[in-house]
Amino acid sequence: MLVKLLGSAAGGAFPQWNCACHNCRAIRKGTFQGKIRSQTQVAICGDSNSWFLLGASPDLRAQIESTPELHPRDGLRDSPISGVVLLNAEIDHILGLLLLRELQPLSVYATRSIRGILTQDNSMFRMLERVPNQVMWTDIHSATPFPLVDPAKHDSGISCRAVSLGSHFPAYVSERRRSELASGESSSGLIVETTTGKRLAYLPALPQITDSLMSEIESSDVLLFDGTFWDDVELIRVQASGRTAREMGHVPVSESLALLAQVGRPRKIYIHINNTNPLLNEAGPEYRQVRNAGWEIAEDGWQFEL
Ligand SMILES: [Zn+2]
Question: In angstroms, what is the span from residue 235 Cα to ligand 1's centroid?
Answer without folding.
Answer: 10
